[in-house]
Amino acid sequence: MKEFRLYAITGEQFHPGRDMLEVMEEAIKGGVDIIQLRDKDSSPDEVLRKAKELRELTWKYGVTFIVNDYIDIALEVDADGVHLGQNDVSLTEARRRVGDKIIGISTHAIEEALLAEEQGADYIGVGPVFPTKTKVDVVDPVTVAYVQQVAQRIQIPFVAIGGIKLSNVDEVIAAGATRICAVSEIVGSSDVAGTCQAFLRKLEGAGESHAADR
């Protein structure tokens, strides 16, 4: 998979009255590298419609497109990959179905991260770092301590996620994260592109600091 720094997930509940495609295009223009369609409430037909629209948008800009949960839909629209939770289909079964497409796995503990790496995940989600309203069935926050564990022990790419905002992202970066995912802070912003650019400046500043330390 391509190198990435900023990962955005759809969250239509955070921008009522605004079109999803418009919001995600603003995020891409702001510098987002990966877009994930995550929709737990719509019918499969509606998710498919949204996936087709986002696939066209991400092709237009050359951005990676991931579908959450729906492997069949990811395959139908030729998404770049799928993202799965701990209670979804196994990584082994997902790999059999999607071939060499990207597979991301949500993890909440170092044991889950190590297993995902061993089984061939292309990247993992690490979180929720902070309390979040994005998921109703959310586990307790893993805190930046888990981010630090993963940074020290996991070799595949990981993205920190969960309650991350411009006001607390410095803590996450200091713990070793070089890739950030935000939902409400991005899609709920009155300046989506500007918020994305602000996250990227934080990440770039941390990268320069780490280089200076070496």
Automatic annotation (TrEMBL):
InterPro entries named in the record: Aldolase_TIM (IPR013785), ThiamineP_synth_sf (IPR036206), ThiamineP_synth_TenI (IPR022998), TMP_synthase (IPR034291)
Name the residues that bind Mg(2+): 69, 88
Tell me the residue numbers annotated for binding 4-amino-2-methyl-5-(diphosphooxymethyl)pyrimidine.
36-40, 68, 106, 135
Keywords from UniProt, A to Z, are: Magnesium, Metal-binding, Thiamine biosynthesis, Transferase
Query: Which species is this record about?
Result: Paenibacillus catalpae
**SUPFAM superfamilies for this protein:** Thiamin phosphate synthase
HAMAP family cross-referenced by the UniProt entry = TMP_synthase
Question: What are the residue boundaries of the Thiamine phosphate synthase/TenI domain, all occurrences included?
Answer: 6-186
Asked whether the UniProt record includes Magnesium among its keywords, one would answer yes
Which family does the record assign?
A: Belongs to the thiamine-phosphate synthase family.
- Source species taxonomy: Bacteria, Bacillati, Bacillota, Bacilli, Bacillales
Gene Ontology biological process terms from the UniProt entry: thiamine biosynthetic process; thiamine diphosphate biosynthetic process
Amino-acid positions noted as binding 2-[(2R,5Z)-2-carboxy-4-methylthiazol-5(2H)-ylidene]ethyl phosphate in the UniProt annotation, renumbered to this chain:
132-134, 163, 183-184
Q: Which domain of life is it from?
A: Bacteria
Q: What class of enzyme is it?
A: transferase
Work out whether the entry's keyword set contains Metal-binding.
yes
What protein name is recorded for this chain?
Thiamine-phosphate synthase
Q: List required co-factors.
A: Mg(2+)
The record's comment on cofactor binding reads: Binds 1 Mg(2+) ion per subunit.
- Annotated GO CC locations: cytoplasm
